[in-house]
């Protein structure tokens, strides 16, 4: 964790530095600056740290002026002797507000808060990136007509689909069946093959709907689905190898 201290009192800088050296959280102090002018210049010319420890009253004015002159994206822990600025502080990237004299356990707790927030939001960003990387063209929802009404079914709710008597039926995870005006081939084009597999000419299934596999001779595989299918679902010997590869991916 790279930390920048913005503090004009050298004893306070020394105390913060000593506490950072003693903390159990690995930190690197990249610099200590004592004024608004210094801070603005440094932040314009250098990569921003992971975290700022910032006093409010500096030698040439309040540190809030820094935010007016340079865009700061990293979080801030304000370290001050004044308790009246806490509301304004939380309008300027603040994740904590520590009153002087700062106790080591308070600083440690603030650093731990930063670590927790970083992990939380990093996970959220990773999920967003994964969502953006999903192959284009695969549907996330299906609009289905029931009588005079329309309902939307999420792809994630589909268990399996089958074709029978020139009709195509979608079955959700709760066993509810919906008639579609699309062919099984049309459905297959809109489903991500990482999660859905065409078992035979009549069935497409989600990986999550497969309960059990059973060898039934001559290289064929019987697939038990959940919810239960109205008939035996068989993967032919010609398709069995590809199906097992998909299951083992």
UniProtKB/TrEMBL annotation:
Residues 2-115 form the Response regulatory domain. PROSITE patterns: HTH_LYTTR, RESPONSE_REGULATORY. SUPFAM superfamilies: CheY-like. Residues 144-249 form the HTH LytTR-type domain. It comes from the Bacteria. Keywords: DNA-binding, Phosphoprotein. The modification 4-aspartylphosphate is found at residue 55. The keyword DNA-binding applies. InterPro entries: CheY-like_superfamily (IPR011006), LytTR_DNA-bd_dom (IPR007492), Sig_transdc_resp-reg_receiver (IPR001789), WalR-like (IPR039420). This is LytTR family two component transcriptional regulator. The lineage of its organism: Bacteria, Pseudomonadati, Bacteroidota, Chitinophagia, Chitinophagales.
């Amino acid at each position: 964790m790279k930390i920048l201290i913005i503090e004009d009192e050298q004893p306070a800088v020394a105390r913060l530095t000593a506490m950072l050296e003693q903390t159990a959280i690995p930190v690197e102090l990249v610099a200590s600056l004592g004024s608004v002018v210094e801070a603005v210049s440094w932040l314009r010319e250098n990569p921003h740290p992971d975290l700022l420890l910032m006093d409010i009253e500096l030698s040439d004015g309040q540190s809030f002026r820094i935010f007016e002159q340079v865009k700061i994206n990293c979080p801030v822990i304000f370290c001050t002797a004044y308790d009246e600025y806490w509301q304004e502080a939380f309008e300027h990237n603040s994740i904590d507000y520590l009153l002087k004299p700062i106790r080591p356990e308070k600083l440690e707790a603030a650093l731990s808060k930063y670590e927790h927030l970083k992990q939380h939001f990093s996970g959220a960003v990773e999920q967003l990136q994964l969502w953006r990387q999903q192959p284009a063209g695969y549907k996330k929802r299906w609009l289905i007509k029931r009588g005079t009404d329309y309902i939307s079914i999420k792809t994630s709710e589909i268990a399996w689909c089958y074709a029978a008597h020139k009709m195509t039926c979608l079955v959700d995870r709760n066993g509810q069946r919906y008639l579609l005006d699309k062919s099984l081939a049309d459905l297959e084009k809109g489903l991500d093959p990482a999660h859905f597999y065409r078992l035979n000419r009549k069935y497409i299934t989600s990986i999550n709907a497969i309960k059990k596999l059973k060898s039934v001779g001559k290289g064929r595989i019987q697939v038990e689905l959940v919810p239960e299918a109205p008939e035996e679902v068989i993967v032919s010997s010609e398709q069995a190898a590809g199906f097992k590869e998909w299951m083992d991916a």
